[in-house]
C-alpha cells in the first residue's frame, strides 16, 4: 500500500505561551505610553483646567484661580451680543468656505488624475500654498487687497471698475478672508482626493468609455461612489478646521476683527477676552462653549454626509 494514500494526522496548533502574551502586551503598552503621556499633558489636562477655570474669575494679573463664581461666566457669555456675533461669523465662514473646499479640490483632483503627463507639476502647484506660514499668507493677501496699490484693485481699475473695499467694508471683509482661505488650504484636500483616486481601477473607466458613458457619467457613477469615504473624511476635517479659524482673520485684520467687528470669529473673541483683557476664566467658558458647538456640528455634518453617501 502506498504511503501517499495514508491519511495525514493533523498537527496540533501551537498556542502562544502566557508569558509571551504578557511580554507582547507590555511591549505594546510601552509603545503607546509616550503618546498617552503627551495626550494627557497637552489635551486632557488643559481641558480639565479649562473646565475648572471657567467656574472662577481667573485672571492673568491675579495669582491662583481667583474667586469661585459658578456659572456666572456662562451667564455673562450668553448675554453678550458680541459673542453671538462672533459665533455667527464662525458658522457663516464655515457654511460659505466648506462647499468650495470640497467641490473645487475634488474637481481639480479628477482633472489632474486624467492627465497623462505633467501630473507632478499640478500636484506641486496646488499643494505649494498650503505649506506657507499664515503670516506669509497674510502679507501676500494684504498687499493684494490694498486699496491704493493692490493687485486686485489695479486689475479692476484697468477695466474701469471701482474698488469694492475688500477689507474696509463690513459686508466684504469676511468673504475676502474666505477667498484667502480657499486659495491657501485647497491643496490639502486636493492631495487627499488625489490619494483616493490612486486606488480607482482604470479598467472601470475603460469599460465605461467603451459603453459610451460621458465624462460626467463616469464621475457620478464611478468616481464619487468610490471616493465616498474620502469625501466624508474631507468634509468632517474641513468643517472642524473652518470652525477653528483664527490665524488669517487675526493677521489680515491686524487683530481688530475687521470694521465694527464684522469679521471677528469665535477664537478671536476668546483671544481678546482671555489674553488681551486677561480674563482667563471668562475666556475658558467661551472656549468650552465653542468646543461643544464644534462637537455638535461635526457629528451632525458627519451623519448628514454619510446619509448622502449611502444614497449616491
Characterization of the model:
This protein is an all-alpha fold. It has one domain (72-311): MetI-like fold, CATH 1.10.3720.10. 69% of the residues lie in helices and 0% in strands. It is built from 13 helices and no strands. The chain has helices at residues 18-53, 72-78, 81-113, 119-127, 134-145, 151-158, 173-197, 202-210, 215-226, 228-243, 247-252, 266-276, 280-311. α3 (81-113) runs parallel beside α7 (173-197), α3 (81-113) packs antiparallel against α10 and α12 runs antiparallel to α13 (280-311). It starts with 17 loop residues before the first helix and ends with a helix.
Topology:
Elements: H1 18-53, H2 72-78, H3 81-113, H4 119-127, H5 134-145, H6 151-158, H7 173-197, H8 202-210, H9 215-226, H10 228-243, H11 247-252, H12 266-276, H13 280-311
Helix pairs in contact: 1-13, 3-7, 3-10, 3-12, 4-7, 7-10, 10-13, 12-13
Keywords:
MetI-like fold, 69% helix, 312 residues, mainly alpha, 13 helices
Can you identify the CATH class? Answer: Mainly Alpha
Report the strand count. 0
Task: Please state the overall shape, judged from the principal axes of the Cα atoms.
Answer: globular
Distance between the termini: 64 Å
Instruction: Name the CATH superfamily classification.
Output: MetI-like
Kindly provide the radius of gyration, computed on alpha-carbon positions and rounded to a whole number of angstroms: 27 Å
Unreliable runs: none
Remind me, CATH topology?
A: MetI-like fold
Helix/strand structural class? mainly alpha
Helical fraction: 55-70%
Q: Give the mean pLDDT.
A: 85
How many alpha or pi helices?
Answer: 13
Q: From the coordinates shown, what is the CATH architecture?
A: Orthogonal Bundle
Give the ordered list of helices and strands: HHHHHHHHHHHHH
How many domains comprise the coordinates? 1
| Main sheet record | none
Amino acid at each position: 500500500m502506498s504511503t501517499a494514500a495514508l491519511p495525514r494526522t493533523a498537527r496540533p496548533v501551537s498556542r502562544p505561551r502566557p508569558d509571551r502574551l504578557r511580554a507582547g502586551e507590555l511591549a505594546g503598552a510601552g509603545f503607546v505610553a509616550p503618546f498617552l503621556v503627551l495626550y494627557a499633558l497637552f489635551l486632557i489636562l488643559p481641558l480639565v483646567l479649562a473646565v475648572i477655570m471657567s467656574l472662577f474669575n481667573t485672571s492673568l494679573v491675579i495669582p491662583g484661580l481667583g474667586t469661585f463664581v459658578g456659572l456666572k461666566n456662562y451667564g455673562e457669555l450668553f448675554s453678550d451680543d458680541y459673542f453671538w456675533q462672533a459665533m455667527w461669523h464662525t458658522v457663516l465662514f464655515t457654511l460659505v468656505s466648506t462647499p468650495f473646499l470640497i467641490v473645487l479640490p475634488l474637481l481639480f483632483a479628477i482633472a489632474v488624475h486624467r492627465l497623462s503627463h505633467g501630473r507632478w507639476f499640478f500636484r506641486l502647484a496646488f499643494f505649494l500654498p498650503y505649506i506657507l506660514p499664515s503670516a506669509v499668507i497674510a502679507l501676500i493677501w494684504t498687499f493684494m487687497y490694498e486699496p491704493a496699490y493692490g493687485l486686485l484693485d489695479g486689475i479692476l481699475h484697468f477695466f474701469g471698475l471701482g474698488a469694492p473695499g475688500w477689507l474696509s467694508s463690513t459686508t466684504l471683509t469676511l468673504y475676502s478672508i474666505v477667498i484667502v482661505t480657499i486659495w491657501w488650504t485647497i491643496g490639502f484636500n486636493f492631495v487627499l482626493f488625489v490619494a483616493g483616486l490612486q486606488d480607482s481601477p482604470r479598467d472601470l473607466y475603460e469599460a465605461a468609455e467603451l459603453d459610451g458613458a460621458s465624462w460626467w457619467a463616469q464621475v457620478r457613477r464611478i468616481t464619487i461612489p468610490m471616493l465616498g469615504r474620502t469625501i466624508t473624511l474631507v468634509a468632517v476635517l474641513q468643517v472642524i478646521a473652518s470652525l477653528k479659524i483664527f490665524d488669517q482673520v487675526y493677521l489680515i485684520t491686524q487683530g481688530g476683527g475687521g470694521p465694527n467687528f464684522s469679521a471677528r470669529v469665535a477664537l478671536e473673541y476668546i483671544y481678546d477676552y482671555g489674553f488681551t483683557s486677561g480674563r482667563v476664566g471668562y475666556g475658558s467658558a467661551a472656549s468650552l462653549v465653542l468646543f461643544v458647538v464644534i462637537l455638535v456640528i461635526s457629528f451632525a455634518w458627519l451623519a448628514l454626509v454619510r446619509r448622502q453617501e449611502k444614497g449616491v
